[in-house]
């Protein structure tokens, strides 16, 4: 390969790009605009509720919500094909330390099984602590299964995972980089970006946090570094996770099992992965687990919610490289009087991605979208709250990689009380963010403009 002439390299690259570009995002013009029924489908472990039962349940759960919430729920179901799940307790975990404490406490209490799926599993203090806990639970007889992404764990020594296997833990490296390790099914560009942990089939965690000391650092609220001195190696990270208890846990468990099976990893060891789950709270959620073979349900869900927004769209996005349809939806919302605010990175661990996203700033600012850059932490959260009622938390970034190439998982929570928690988190981020004005943006250096243009050329891949 190294003897190929430059023209051959360009031909090869062009061929790869053409093949990869066959997959595109769904056409926004085909998203539903009118609800096909009055009440969304509500799933339970016994099957879907009858329409009258679902309407009565949602009337109780959404007593303080506007009628728009039910319409949005129906339109989102039409777009994604995924029903709502009622009866859940959803806890917002607002930074790495809080998340790690909750996850380790849940794992410590496991009696039957722990299923962990993560993009990154580092061999660092947090990774080693987590690994020791998993090995101890395995010695106690708990079944432990781990999925870690092949690219996300490139920096983790193979001996780290060998030690887990030697302790009796089942470890699957998802889509390994070496094609010989998955002959005939090599999918280098399709990464498992999900973050899921399910304990005893009863408690689940998901969001943006990997198993790494990086993500367990102090969030911006504990960091005293200022932007003038900050860089991604010195400041904390700002991220978001959620803890779920109730019937929706089964949907996250199924996403884990389905990914395991589709990697031809063999049967999972026997355990009660799907126990009967009683209602644990009043939250109504939709679990969207996407893959390259599916039809970008997370993307469609976000577009539907933005199109239906009446009051506010508040997005926190670590890696923001939107397609034109997303840009158009944000601008259209702003033009009809919706308060559209984006909290985006001011300090990033991937400058290339940050510059690609900044290529859209002028268009967005001219369209009435307000942009803020978080100053004292590396932003890694992927969340949105719309009209204070519709919230999404998960692993998917607002970019083509998440919507087309990766395996991702987001949870949509349709609940005004949870929306208030999300709004409080968003406003706390705003306080440590710097507004970007159109006048100021137009005065940015030409060197930055060049970086933006060059970065945007690769937006399909990053």
Structural features:
alpha/beta; Endonuclease, Chain A; disordered N terminus; single chain; 16 helices; 462 residues
What would your notes on this structure say?
The chain is of the alpha/beta class. The protein folds into 2 domains: 235 residues, Endonuclease Chain A (Endonuclease, Chain A), CATH 3.30.870; 138 residues, Endonuclease, Chain A (2-Layer Sandwich). Helices cover 37% and strands 22% of the residues. The chain is built from 16 helices and 18 strands. The protein has an 18-stranded mixed β-sheet that branches. Helix 5 links the parallel strand 4 and strand 5. The longest helix is centred in the last third of the chain and has 16 residues. The N terminus is likely disordered.
- The 3D shape can be described as globular
Tell me the span between the first and last alpha carbons.
24 Å
CATH homologous superfamily classification of the largest domain = Endonuclease Chain A
CATH topology of the largest domain: Endonuclease, Chain A
Radius of gyration: 22 Å
What is the annotated CATH architecture of the largest domain? 2-Layer Sandwich
Helix count, DSSP H or I runs of 4 or more residues: 16
CATH C-level category of the largest domain: Alpha Beta
């Amino acid at each position: 390969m190294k003897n190929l002439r430059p023209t051959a390299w360009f031909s090869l690259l062009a061929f790869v790009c053409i093949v990869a570009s066959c997959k595109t995002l769904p056409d926004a013009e085909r998203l539903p605009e009118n609800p096909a029924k009055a009440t969304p489908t509500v799933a339970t472990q016994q099957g879907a509720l009858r329409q009258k039962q679902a309407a009565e349940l949602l009337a109780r759960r959404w007593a303080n919500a506007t009628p728009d919430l039910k319409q949005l729920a129906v339109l989102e179901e039409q777009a994604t094909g995924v029903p709502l799940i009622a009866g859940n307790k959803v806890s917002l975990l607002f930074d790495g330390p809080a998340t790690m404490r909750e996850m380790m406490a849940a794992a410590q209490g496991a009696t039957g099984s722990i299923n962990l799926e993560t993009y990154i599993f580092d061999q660092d203090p947090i990774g080693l602590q987590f690994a020791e806990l998993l090995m101890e639970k395995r010695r106690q007889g708990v079944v432990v299964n781990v999925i870690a992404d092949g690219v996300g764990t490139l920096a983790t020594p193979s001996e780290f995972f060998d030690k887990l296997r030697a302790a009796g833990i089942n470890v699957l490296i998802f889509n390994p980089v070496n094609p010989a390790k998955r002959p005939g099914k090599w999918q280098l560009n399709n990464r498992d970006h999900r973050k899921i942990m399910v304990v005893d089939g009863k408690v689940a965690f998901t969001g943006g946090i990997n198993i790494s000391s990086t993500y367990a650092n102090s969030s911006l609220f504990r960091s005293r570094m200022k932007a003038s001195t900050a860089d991604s190696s010195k400041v904390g990270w700002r991220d978001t996770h959620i803890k779920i208890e109730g019937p929706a846990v089964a949907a996250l468990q199924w996403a884990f099992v389905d990914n395991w099976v589709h990697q031809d990893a063999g049967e999972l060891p026997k355990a009660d992965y799907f126990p009967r789950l009683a209602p644990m709270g009043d939250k109504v959620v939709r679990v969207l687990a996407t893959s390259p073979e599916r039809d970008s349900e997370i993307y469609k869900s976000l577009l539907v919610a933005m199109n239906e927004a009446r009051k506010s769209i508040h997005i926190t996005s670590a890696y923001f490289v939107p397609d034109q349809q997303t840009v158009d939806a944000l601008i259209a919302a702003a033009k009809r009087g919706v308060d559209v605010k984006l909290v985006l990175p001011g300090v990033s661990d991937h400058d290339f991605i940050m510059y690609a996203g900044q290529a859209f700033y002028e268009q967005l600012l001219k369209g009435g979208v307000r942009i803020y850059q978080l100053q004292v932490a590396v932003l890694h959260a992927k969340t949105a709250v719309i009209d204070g009622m519709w919230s999404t938390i998960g692993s998917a970034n607002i970019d083509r990689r998440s919507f087309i190439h990766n395996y991702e998982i987001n949870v949509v929570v349709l609940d005004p009380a949870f929306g208030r928690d999300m709004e409080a988190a968003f406003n706390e981020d705003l306080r440590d963010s710097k507004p970007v004005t159109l006048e100021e943006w137009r005065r940015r250096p030409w060197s930055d403009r060049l970086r933006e243009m060059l970065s945007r050329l690769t937006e399909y891949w990053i």
